[in-house]
Amino acid sequence: MKKRIGIGIIFICVFLIPILVSIVTEIPNHNEENNIDFTSISPSATSLTLLWNYSGINVGEVDISDNGEKIAVASIDDNRVYLFNNTANSSKSYEWYNTTSGSVQCVAISSNGTYLVAGSNDNSVYYFNNSNLNPSNPEWNFSTSNIVRDVAISGDGGYIIAGGTDTQLYLFNHTNNYPKSPIWSAPIGDSIYSLDISKDGYYITSGSASGDFYLHNRTSLDPMWNKNLGPAINSVCISEDGNYASAGTASSMNEEFFLFHKANNSELWNYSVNAGILSIAMSDSGEIISIGTTSGKFQVYYHNIPAPLWTYQEIGEIPEVDITSDGKFLVAGLYGQKKILLFKQSSSTPIWQESFSSSVNSVKITPDGYYIIIGTQNSACLYYFDVPPDEAPPDDPPSLMVPFGSFYMTILILGIAVLVIIKKNKIRIK
């Protein structure tokens, strides 16, 4: 009898226990995936840990992949594009770099960190593929007729936009063909100071030195609409879903922030900031918006309220701001004050700040808020933010070997099988 009962138990162990083990082992471990020594991280709600600092470079712009694993850095003085990873190291080095023939002031990286685009003062756009055998060699490059001032890339790296002093807005795809040519180039009429692209690469915004604000889609070089906002447009932004587009002007005569819906060129609202707008960031849905100005104002808006939710006042320029995908956390880089500020959306009081030995030129935060990359006039540095559990985005569902419903079906089938075995062998449990 004991032998027959043992057969049933063995049957359960062989088939059921592996399934249960697979569920436990397949639950993702955020800490392990990012190769960080978390023993040094404080449990404080505003704990930030410096993972690495790379000094000796004057950073024009930084960007970071969605998971924080890959970091792109544009370097002004040595004309280089750098790629770093997020591994903590007191003597940090790059994965690779490429030297162009001019200062590199703009850079962007795809969501998964595989593709990178940079614009140089040598008038060229450079596109890199980190999965190539020699990723530091551009997969392609394209020469414009003047300085490239801004670049952007779609989430999957499939579409790239660039613009600058030659007054043309360029749209490229990722394919490697020589000589490289754009899908189209649209005349903007003046130097392009800022541009942006939706995550799917379909909607494109740009702003010019003459105050012209354009919305394109990738199917045509003719704009969906455009509008003159008056003075020079220093910054534009589009929500990840492409539904909302924003622009900020910078002039002593007219310093306003504008919000549009993609449907037409009638602004939803505009607000007089009384300071030149240097940078704009939007949450994925466009519901939360932040701006940085020439006068040290850092403001946060809701998309349906034509006035700031709150204002934080500093001294000097705020050249770049950024925001998490859900809008819960916001960062601002201060040029004159040489520091970085981290805020919660709900309060104008910074929850963390850090000072540097030189001016901050650029800052980015990952969509989930865990990583903040900062570029100053003499270094690039990466911080890890120990996001409070009640503020953290939900983890991805565990990846199971069998679907959740199938798991319970499997248990049911195994249970029936065991009952059949017991009945067949006429096992009596006393």
CATH architecture heading of the largest domain? 7 Propeller
* Domains, number: 2
* Assembly classification: single chain
Name of the CATH superfamily of the largest domain: YVTN repeat-like/Quinoprotein amine dehydrogenase
Mean pLDDT: 86
Strand order of the largest sheet: 1-32-31-30
Poorly predicted parts: 7-45, 396-410
What this model shows, in words?
- A four-stranded antiparallel beta sheet has the order 1-32-31-30, with no helix packed on it.
- It is globular.
- The termini are close together.
- It folds into two domains: 2-28 and 396-424; 47-385, Methylamine Dehydrogenase, Chain H.
- By secondary structure, it is mainly β.
- α1 runs antiparallel to α3.
- The chain contains three helices and 32 strands.
Keywords for this entry:
4-stranded antiparallel sheet, 32 strands, 430 residues, mainly beta, Methylamine Dehydrogenase, Chain H
List the helices and strands and how they pair.
Blueprint: H1 2-26, H2 30-33, E1 48-55, E2 59-64, E3 70-75, E4 80-85, E5 96-99, E6 104-109, E7 115-120, E8 124-129, E9 140-143, E10 148-153, E11 159-164, E12 168-173, E13 184-187, E14 192-197, E15 203-208, E16 212-217, E17 225-228, E18 233-238, E19 244-249, E20 256-261, E21 269-272, E22 277-282, E23 288-293, E24 297-302, E25 310-313, E26 320-323, E27 329-334, E28 339-344, E29 352-355, E30 360-365, E31 371-376, E32 379-385, H3 404-424
Antiparallel strand pairs: 1-32, 2-3, 3-4, 4-5, 6-7, 7-8, 8-9, 10-11, 11-12, 12-13, 14-15, 15-16, 16-17, 18-19, 19-20, 20-21, 22-23, 23-24, 24-25, 26-27, 27-28, 28-29, 30-31, 31-32
Helix pairs in contact: 1-3
